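queue> pop job 88
queue> type: inverse folding (structure -> sequence)
queue> payload:
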């Protein structure tokens, strides 16, 4: 299962039936945890024993916590990115301090990472190939950039 960093993880649950004891779902023991604030791969282990202490074969679930690269379509009043599309640079202006910008290509490869710690700055696009890029600001807000 894959979730975005910052989302709430809700386990998909598990069920257990024993041929003598019937439904023993409430006896399932889950080991491991998921830190939704940190990108990473987390493993949860599910196990259960019947009334005669016969253990089931443990089942694992892998949870991938990933950074979002989706484009935020909301109109953000306090942020301006222009010109877009561009041939040489994008100017970024914000009412909130910009601590980190990252630019990814559509394959998810990080192309640019910088810490401007400013309200306004320019992103040089001269060395980028023509195409569509994803701009991530402060690790949260994402925007589509076009280089032509």
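queue> result:
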């Amino acid at each position: 299962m894959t979730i975005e960093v910052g989302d709430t993880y809700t386990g998909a649950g598990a069920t257990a039936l024993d041929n003598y004891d019937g439904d023993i779902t409430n006896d399932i023991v889950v080991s491991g945890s998921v830190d939704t604030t940190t990108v990473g791969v987390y493993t949860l282990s599910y196990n259960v024993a019947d009334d005669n202490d016969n253990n089931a074969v443990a089942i694992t679930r892998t949870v991938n916590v990933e950074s979002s690269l989706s484009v935020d379509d909301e109109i953000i009043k306090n942020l301006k990115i222009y010109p877009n599309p561009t041939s040489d640079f994008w100017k970024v202006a914000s009412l909130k301090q910009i601590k980190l910008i990252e630019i990814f290509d559509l394959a998810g490869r990080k192309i640019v990472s910088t810490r401007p710690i400013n309200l306004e700055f320019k992103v040089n696009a001269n060395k980028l190939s023509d195409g569509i890029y994803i701009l991530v600001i402060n690790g949260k807000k994402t925007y589509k950039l076009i280089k032509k």
